[in-house]
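Let's sit down with a protein and look at its sequence and fold side by side. Go ahead whenever you are ready, and we will take it from there.
>
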Amino acid sequence: MLLTRQVVCRSIMAMSFRQVWVFLAFVSVTTLAAVQSGPATAPQAPPAPVRLENGSILYAELSKTVDARKAKVGDPVTAVLVADVLSHGKIVVRHDSKLMGHVTEAQPHSKEAPESRLGIVFDKAITKEGEVPFQSLLLAIRPAERPVVDVPNAPSPLSNSAQQPTQTQHYPTPQGSNGPPRINYPIGEDMKSHDRDIAKNGPTDIDGLSLSSAAGGGAQAIVSTQRTVRLESGVRIELRVTGQ
């Protein structure tokens, strides 16, 4: 240690005044940078990817109309979640998140082919954190929610018009009054409850439409023997997650 100090002192004495000034300035800057940087911190692990549990039920509505007369296999189909999806009490995908899918088959109604078919599959959710891939099965389709308007009876000539109720509009609201419904049941109970609803109400209550397995087996398809299948924007769809 003493020998090292002697070497440093001799080196400094051999320098000119300008060289000593530059050397001391370099040492000061290096020391200050080391103090400011502080101890090295360990890199943080990236957050775990979002996953949808198998059996989760997704409730959504179509963003755009899908018509079996115009659609082609592979065409994109989009929908928007109308309920938060939870797993173990935590929201994994929020309502208003976009669902992405595609057309798997499209057959218009005709004399030669009276059965019209429209197959759609959803396989991706778009969230603020990124994309969440999944596999799903179409369980049910429901008519689009429409506003209901109450129109009062026409007032009689002898009645006071100021006392008549005014025309009001009742729009569909989610379960509860504090926001969108949340699918927060245990997966097994949610599946059983949904299966009971399907058994009671059927997979669709849109007149003339039914659900059938795809032509080659696998994904569900919407079928009609009366007309070409056309799902309007806003039609409600129910999906079950079957894999990742």
